[in-house]
Amino acid sequence: MKREADCQGNRDEELQLTEAIGQVARDAGKIILSAREIENHTTVKSGHANFVTEYDKRVQAFIFEELHRILPEANFVGEEDGAEQFRPEYREGYAFVVDPIDGTMNFMQGLDLSVISIGLLREGEPWIGVVYNPYRELLFSAVRGRGACLNGEQIHCSREPLSRSLVEFGTSPYYPELSKKSLAIAGEYLKRGADLRRFGTAAWDLSLCAWGKLGIYFELRLGLWDYCAGALIAMESGCRVTDIEGNPLHFQGPSSILCASAGAAEEDYLPGEILEPQGE
Ligand code: IPD
Ligand code: CA
Ligand code: CA
Questions:
Q1: Which of 18, 39, 46, 234 can pair with 239 through a Cys bridge, CB separation 3.0 to 4.6 Å?
Q2: Which of 102, 106, 209, 258 to mutate to test the pocket of ligand 1 (most atoms within 8 A of CB)?
Q3: CATH architecture classification, 162-275
Q4: Ligand 1 centre from 103 Cα, in Å?
């Protein structure tokens, strides 16, 4: 049986580490809130409409420096390093996986919906996850096998059926070749769920599943930094988190993702089961 979340009980080593990582995320959030004139600090990355701001780089540099103090022996994988290749050494010991601003487009547009995502792999497996929304001061965290928490209180995913649940999806915006399939799957879920949403930050989407607000979240391609922390938090809340075909997540680089609440997971919810054959 799964243990109840230990959000504030024993101050043992792994909870202390989780708290320390959470504090780094909170401090990094202040940099996001202090941002001004973002449009003057923006450049273009490779891929469709893929932007990066000076703040993405500044927040990542801050997080790396602080995390290095906490766990000096750990490797670092950060979105703004630009290396999507999963290196063999990340499978040994510890590796932090960081998305300094998940939801850069929201950030650039002043939508006040972006999060900081910090995952920690141990021997290549997800061990600790922290996602922080600085605008609402919401800190999601999970330690593998110990449940998921929001601001120190245990959370569980939803048990509602899909017909009463919101379905959230990501469009994999930097990969236009995936648009048609994304929209086809979303169209099927629209028939089955209560309604669709698209918030623009994958780590937030996964955290909302953990918080019991969503029945399904899917996206056809994410980087490891997009899903590492959020997927662990969702799993620890009771969600079933797999790739889009229902296979276990590998946590070794880019992947599709499908997160189903406990309620949705009781139904035929995989796209392979619900998608009508599409004409090209
Ligand atoms: C993006 C967001 C978005 C998702 C994209 C991600 P970024 O991350 O999470 O919701 O649809 O696939 O790349 O670029 O804002 O860090
Ligand atoms: Ca991201
Ligand atoms: Ca980012």
A1: 234
A2: 102
A3: 3-Layer(aba) Sandwich (3.40)
A4: 6
- CA gap 172, 223 in Å, rounded: 10
Which atom in ligand 1 lies closest to the alpha carbon of residue 105?
Answer: 15
Other Cβ atoms closer than 10 A to 87: 12
Q: Which of 219, 201, 228 is nearest to 90 (CA)?
A: 228
Instruction: Please tell me the predicted confidence (pLDDT) of residue 280.
Output: 45
- Element of type H or E holding 255: strand 255-260
The predicted pLDDT at position 84 comes to 66
**What distance in Å separates the CA atoms of residue 267 and residue 196, rounded to the nearest whole number?**
18
Task: List the chain residues with pLDDT less than 50.
Answer: 1-3, 279-280
Domain boundaries along the sequence of the chain: 2-155, 162-275
> Which atom of ligand 1 has the smallest separation from the CA of 172?
12
- 117 within 8 A of 142, measured Cβ to Cβ: no
Domain 2-155, architecture per CATH: 2-Layer Sandwich (3.30)
Neighbour order of strands in the sheet with 75-78: 75-78, 94-102, 115-122, 125-133, 138-143, 148-150, 153-155
